[in-house]
């Protein structure tokens, strides 16, 4: 029996199906090795769900409230327990949600070329080092992290505020900052390559029939859910590196959920 939810101005059923889809980047040996080095392996997960409703971005709050109340989501959407460190199902009665639209328009990694032209990265790909700074809770030891975190740094503005909201930039920044025991890269390529693989795996594109140009068809949201007491998803502890991005494909009617909880990732032995 399907639950009934208010979507827009009418009551309608909103069944969701958990899809056991595999994502290529998660099984790529290079990516796995990098995520382990960045203290994110074992704490980052992607899940896919299908839905039967027409998606309208202006109804996003109703859409995602219905999502979190669906039995298939409650029993399949996973998060890391702040207490046991184990993966658990949501299992919470979500009372309210916070949904932020994340622009997703980029179709080229040329977006990051300015890191070279502004000498954040040398021509050979090496990231320029700097004297250590501290931006709680991150130690900044190179010009890349200065650009990402320090608003008063000389070259912070090479990425505009709008640039910084782009989903492609968000992925890149999350990878650069990593988890608690993150070992930073000395060269840029591993960050760019991993960002590209994740982005291509999660985001859908289409060719405009009139202009013949490629454009992104996915719509992206950053989502947090709250129970009657406090935030319960993606974590009970608010942190810049704990996130859940919902990448909605309105045409194929599926949702990819990119989840990460800040902490100590799997260690290599």
Write a structural description:
With 269 residues, the chain is α+β, with helices and mostly antiparallel strands. The chain contains 9 helices and 15 strands. The strands form 5 sheets. Strands 3, 4, 7, 12, 13, 14 and 15 form a 7-stranded antiparallel sheet that branches. A two-stranded antiparallel sheet has the order 1-2. α8 crosses α9. The longest helix is centred in the last third of the chain and has 14 residues. The radius of gyration is 19 Å and the shape is globular. The termini are far apart. The N terminus is likely disordered.
Give the SSE map.
Layout: E1 4-7, E2 10-13, E3 16-19, H1 24-27, H2 29-37, E4 44-51, H3 60-69, H4 71-74, E5 78-80, E6 87-89, E7 96-102, H5 114-117, E8 129-135, E9 138-142, H6 143-149, H7 161-165, H8 167-177, H9 189-202, E10 205-207, E11 214-216, E12 219-226, E13 231-233, E14 243-249, E15 254-260
Antiparallel strand pairs: 1-2, 3-4, 4-15, 5-6, 7-12, 8-9, 10-11, 12-13, 12-14, 14-15
Helix pairs in contact: 8-9
N-to-C span: 48 Å
Low-confidence stretches: 1-13
Q: What is the structural class? A: alpha+beta
Q: Whole-number radius of gyration? A: 19 Å
Strand content: 25-35%
Short description:
This protein has 269 residues and is an alpha+beta fold. The protein has nine helices and 15 strands. The protein has helices spanning 24-27, 29-37, 60-69, 71-74, 114-117, 143-149, 161-165, 167-177, 189-202, and strands spanning 4-7, 10-13, 16-19, 44-51, 78-80, 87-89, 96-102, 129-135, 138-142, 205-207, 214-216, 219-226, 231-233, 243-249, 254-260.
